[in-house]
Specification:
The chain is of the alpha/beta class and 785 residues long. It is built from 25 helices and 20 strands. Strand 1 and strand 2 form a beta hairpin. The N terminus is likely disordered.
Length: 785
């Protein structure tokens, strides 16, 4: 396990001697016999093939070696006491790093754990958000951020720690070129003239050469195969690095893998050396040459009838304060087209792909599918899952949300088996395509592996294979090459070429320059411009959301007291008349707590069903008999009692944001800080699971796996979605715990808070309402009795 040492304490060095890490359940270690020393102030570039253990090494350096997840052997000495929080760690997937509803509070999480005072927390947060060029104010909701914007926010959270060791895992993978440049400048500026050790993982090391003076390269088996001055390593070990999948600066992109799935595979894939570059390339059943992607598309593609037509498309940002993302877009997609959608982070690329997939209604315009001379509106086609799957395929940005089956092979075949269940010939052809995809994408050795135990790059390639194996007409790919080395990039590019040569129209949302250069057309999105009033205020302050009810102004402890008062009062409901009058009082006060009528009614549905169920049970088990006249008042009393017990709390839920609730419980109620803050982060994650559920349901609909109106099918789908969501929630919780610990939460027994939790006059009014809900049922019971 990680240990501190006198050497580490005095010099700030990181020393690893013979370090191995083997995850539980795997026979082979992820890292093998790793020996190195990192000196204070070194700028280190860490490269290697996908799956070589780079992310694992960063977690070990951050002091996050969790013995419940694997076995660490060898000697690892970290600076100081080796506790998490001394290093700033930017995780590969920033989605799981969010711990607060708003950007400012999220960045402040680390300084709070360091017990900084409020002025210092505010100053660190402001400096960190400024450094990364965060384009929104501190009050921006974290759930409204794109993947690239979340990456900036996560880096700001790491910089706010003022760490001794800064560890960055693919920090620019989700960013546009300008955003990536801003982020690199932020890193360079944050550590300038300071003895901060920086380790950067990036598949494209050329962007960091002016900053990093040392380069480490991990081989495919997790061994250190290169260590030295960065430029010298790239020059002297060029061929070895190319063979390991490293993007060596100055080298052209690799030739895409050639795939022909029109006939069965002749045999296993072969490795070859291409053009003396030392690049190992997989060639799968060499048949037809790939299309010439440098051209505007083939003549056939240019002259063919469009398969998807877009006219006057308008899309906006979600939420009440919507702003336009796409306006007046006209687009014709023809067989063999490759359209690259680019633009800065948050410009609407993912939103556009969802609209083209029929998963998001347009604010304006029309989308239609053209088949055999007929035009069918896309929104009508989207109602029929299997018909939609035959036409459109979609790979979402977060590949783990696309998984629907337990094994890789079953995942890749799921759509084919659903849409071609009654067509053996097409199903056989889809199986041949799936086999070719597994081999080309380097997944053949994983065909029996658990889909939920893959690395990020492997998940993305499985999601690609699963989306296209059945042969759709239009394929929509959201950042398909993120996190891929040269070899796996060549495989992904080869799949896209094979789709085009097969007559499929492909649209990719990407920041990948090499992939975008292969497109016949480019679509540049500008996205919403920041308004003068919005740009940007980094002050941490209580946030008033548009449409917040008056109850949201109260301290959350006061709102909990209201719910408690209603619960106590419900025990005095002995008569249905008392319950009905008390419930009328709650409903009379409801406008003070209701944010939206539809959302409130949706939350009341399960409460109503539960109350009716209790009343039905009271009737069914009554000694007087189901039809006895005096049994019904008893059942009605039970129904109204449950309603009085639960409804006030349900109405107050929108006014209990997790961060404010945690602040109040810790500062007002003096509860232990760690469990309170962990619970608040968990509540935030729980709120986000609804959006994940919707995405998973969309994935099943577009892959032909939606059961339609079949009751039995709906039950099976609900069970499958519940299991997938549970797996996602567990993995997300694990990643969130790592992120929180990396920002010092593991050692924060007591902490400070960026905002106070004041008690005002309105809170005493809330206490009076709680007393009213407690006393009224008691008084009514005595009067009516």
């Amino acid at each position: 396990m990680a240990e501190s040492s006198p050497v580490g304490i005095e010099t700030g060095e990181v020393v690893a001697a013979g370090v191995c890490w083997r995850p539980h359940g795997r026979r082979e270690p992820t890292l093998r016999e790793l020996t190195l020393t990192l000196r204070p102030g070194e700028r280190v570039l860490l490269a290697g093939a996908s799956g070589s253990g780079k992310s694992t090494l960063l977690r070990l350096l951050a002091g996050l070696a969790d013995e419940s997840l694997g076995e660490l052997t060898g000697e690892l000495r970290l600076p100081g006491d080796g506790r998490p929080g001394r290093a700033g760690l930017l995780l590969q997937d920033p989605t799981h790093a969010v711990v607060a509803e708003h950007a400012g509070r999220d960045v402040a999480f680390g300084p709070e754990n360091r017990r900084a005072d409020r002025p210092e927390i505010a100053d660190r947060t402001r400096r960190a958000l400024t450094a990364v060029g965060f384009p929104y104010p501190a009050a921006r909701r974290s759930t409204d951020l794109s993947g690239g914007e979340l990456q900036r926010l996560a880096l700001a959270g790491a910089l706010a720690l003022d760490p001794e060791l800064l560890l960055l895992d693919e920090p620019t993978a989700m960013l546009d070129p300008d955003g990536a440049r801003t982020l690199r400048d932020a890193v360079i500026g944050a550590v300038a003239d300071r003895p901060v050790t920086v380790v950067v993982v990036d598949h494209r090391p050329g962007d960091w050469l002016d900053f990093c003076d040392r380069m480490l390269v991990l081989g495919p088996d997790g061994r250190l195969i290169a260590d030295g001055p960065a430029r010298a390593v790239l020059a002297e070990q060029r061929d070895e690095l190319l063979a390991a999948g490293v993007w060596v600066p100055g080298e052209p992109p690799p030739e895409p893998v050639r795939i022909d799935w029109s006939r069965p595979l002749a045999g296993p894939s072969t490795d070859s050396v291409r053009g003396g570059m030392g690049l190992r390339r997989r060639e799968v059943d060499l048949g037809r040459a790939a299309v010439d992607s440098a051209a505007e598309g083939s003549a056939t593609a240019r002259d063919a009838e469009a398969v998807l037509r877009v006219r006057g498309l308008g899309l906006g940002t979600p939420g009440a304060a919507t702003r336009p993302l796409v306006t007046g877009l006209d687009l014709d997609l023809r067989p063999g087209d490759l359209v690259a959608v680019s633009g800065r982070s948050g410009s609407g690329k993912s939103t556009l792909l969802r609209a083209l997939a029929g998963l998001q209604p347009a604010d304006a315009g029309e989308l239609a599918v053209l088949r055999e001379g007929t035009e069918l509106p896309l929104d009508r086609l989207a109602r029929r899952s299997r018909e939609l799957a035959r036409v459109v395929a979609w790979q979402p940005q977060h590949a783990e949300q696309q998984l629907t089956r337990r094994t890789v092979e079953a995942e890749v075949l799921a759509t084919s088996e659903a849409v071609y269940a009654d067509d053996p010939e097409r199903l056989a052809a889809a199986r041949r395509r799936a086999e070719a995809l597994l081999v080309a994408l380097g997944l053949d050795r994983l065909r029996g592996a658990d889909s939920y135990q893959l690395s990020g790059g492997e998940e993305r390639r499985v999601a690609l294979a699963a989306a296209v194996a059945h042969g759709p007409v239009v394929v929509l790919l959201d950042e398909p090459t993120v996190g891929q080395d040269r070899q796996t990039w060549a495989a992904v590019a080869g799949v896209i070429d094979a789709l085009r040569s097969d007559g499929t129209a492909v649209v990719v949302a990407t920041h990948d320059r090499e992939l975008a250069d292969r497109a016949g057309r480019r679509l540049e999105l500008d996205g919403p411009a920041a308004t003068a009033a919005e740009w940007p205020d980094y002050t941490i302050a209580p946030v008033v959301e548009p449409g917040d009810p008056p109850a949201a102004r109260c301290n959350t402890v006061a709102l909990l007291i209201i719910a408690l008062g209603a619960a106590i009062g419900s025990f005095f409901v002995a008569d249905w008349r008392v319950g009905l009058l008390t419930l009328a009082l709650s409903l009379l006060l409801a406008p003070l707590a209701v944010r939206g009528v539809r959302a409130t009614l949706a939350r009341l549905v399960p409460v109503t069903l539960a109350a009716i169920t209790v009343g039905w049970s009271a009737l069914a088990f009554s000694d007087r008999g189901f039809l006895a006249p005096d049994a019904w008042p008893v059942a009605a009393a039970e129904v109204t009692r449950i309603a009085c017990l639960v409804i006030p709390g349900v109405l107050l839920i929108p006014s209990l944001p997790p961060s404010r609730l945690g602040d109040a419980l810790a500062q007002r109620c003096r509860l232990p800080h760690r469990p309170v803050v962990a619970a608040a982060a968990g509540l935030l994650r729980l709120q986000q699971l609804l959006e994940v559920w919707r995405t998973m349901a969309d994935v099943r609909r577009i892959r032909g796996l939606d059961p339609g109106r079949s009751p039995a099918g709906r039950v099976r789908q609900a069970a499958g979605l519940t299991f997938a969501l549970l797996v996602y929630a567990l993995r997300s919780a694990q990643q969130s715990a790592l992120s929180m610990d990396a920002r010092g939460f593991a050692g924060a027994r007591r902490r400070t808070f960026a905002l106070p939790s004041p008690w005002r006059a309105v809170d005493w009014l809330a206490v009076a309402v709680a007393a009213l809900l407690t006393v009224v049922p008691l008084l009514l019971s005595r009067i009516l009795s």
